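MODEL INPUT / OUTPUT PAIR
PAIR INDEX: 1
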Amino acid sequence: MAINQTQLVDLLAEHRRRNWSGIQTPEWQARIVRALAESHEPRILKRIAPFHRLPEDPMILDLGSGVGNFVVACRNKGLRAFGVEPDRIGQNSLITALGIASRRLDAAPFAAAVGEQLPFADCTFDLVVMDQVIEHVADQKRVLSEAFRVLKPAGALYVACPNYLRFYEPHYKVRFLPLMPKLLGRIYLRLRGRNPVLLNQLTYTTNWRVRQLLTGSGISWFEDLNCTAFLAKCRGGAGNPANWKGRVAKALVNIPTAGNFVLWAASLYIRLCEGGSEMLAWKKA
């Protein structure tokens, strides 16, 4: 029998306490538990909807499914969603992300597996999701190759990850030099009173790196979702950029001589400095 909301919150809190102690502050852990427990919508489906139409009764894979939020949300909508999770964070713990996920549904849509070797046949899924995953895998090219292998022709792959050209480390929630060498990063984290164990498992990602990985994966084409949304606002689409830089760019776009250059510069800025990378790629039909 699936656990209820109260049990879920208790399990999430205990999981964070056991496995993220020394990585994030208790305050951050409490915020993340609340966010996970209150998330009931498959927001990624809404995010990709303007760019990709899923077929009727799609097969969906969440690669790196964590505590199962996306899969559970999809299943509650009647969709056939499955998750794989290696559970690198929480190994040897009594409470793991995969263990929590498996208790949230009466069905058993979760499997313990690594992205480098997925336990599925070729051309199984219409959509593969990698949300905040690719920075954690050992072999990024192999994982992407596996993701495209299990995708059906013309299927879509969603990839979201941090951009390590920022002055911020999103797992530890601390200021961080862009692409800081791991040796210096470990020293810095210890000086901040943090356990550097998770840093050892991370592969720094950037928007440019994700683009290069996708280009070499045999895709038909891909869409940079952050860049596309920002440029649409600059061109006068619905809504306005949230910060002053975006509003200035939108105003400059309408200047005949400077407009094209501003669009190019804005695109470059997004690729270099955007807090996270969000890409949607399509497998060749």
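PAIR INDEX: 2
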Amino acid sequence: MSRNIHNTRATDRADVQQRDVAFARSAPAWGRWVSWIVALILASNFLWLVATNPNFEWKVVLQWFTEESVLKGLEITLGLTVVSMILGTGLGLLLAVWRLSENRLLSGIASLYIWFFRGTPLLVQLIFWYNLSTLFPTLSLTLPWTSLTWASWNTNDLITPLTAAIAGLALNEAAYMAEIIRAGLLSVDSGQVETTQAFGMSRSRALRRIIIPQAMRAIIPPSGNQLISMIKATSLVSVIAMGDLLYSVQAIYNRTFEIIPMLMVAVIWYLLITSILNVGQSAIERYYARGTRRTVEAATSRASMPLSGARLLQKEDL
């Protein structure tokens, strides 16, 4: 009799263990392992073909990779990116606030600006700024509808390849950043805005202290994408004789006719820069997601407590 009771309890314990999620085991993921193996084989085969292909001329790539003119072009590319991104983000923030304003004049100006600069190609804008002197030989500060002039400048002296590149990149970037920032501001709960108004905070202070810090979690990912796009968009300034990375590489292969290896020099530098930016973007995203991550972890722990208690009760009953 006791042996039958013992066997019955053992059977019940085995049934409970099968029903308890604490003893659950996932099925072997054979398909995942096979896909990884196939992907690694294909990737290694591709890398081997590229590395052993003599047409890439890797010795030439290594020879010119750290050449002085290439590094100077890289410096100009990074400088254009930083300056244009800062100016574009600042102007984009202003346009986003105007777009959300109840003032129809400001909202209309912001909408018109975004419509125009997003609707025309960046290359056309760069060429336009570079050839601005054909439309306006001089730029003057005058009293409207009079000949009274306070100051006047020669357009060719003001619009150099550098200023044309910065103006084209920054003004174009501002249109995209305005929409990104506007979406981030709209992602903040409207109750937060009502609370700042109830405390008598001004709109500018509420934006700085309450709304923008919360909106950063939604702003950072697309802003990182825009920064990476800006790095690549600087290659367009080569058409206005701006000595960026691509222009420096082109100047070399126009002399040596080593087109493919010199283009590989530019490609590798662009990949290195964007890889570093991806790491920085991930770190910033983790920083602004701290509060959300803690909330999710707390909710998960609270949700798992009843399940743990149920497992303990089942074990005690046995």
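PAIR 2 NOTE: The chain has 13 helices and two strands.
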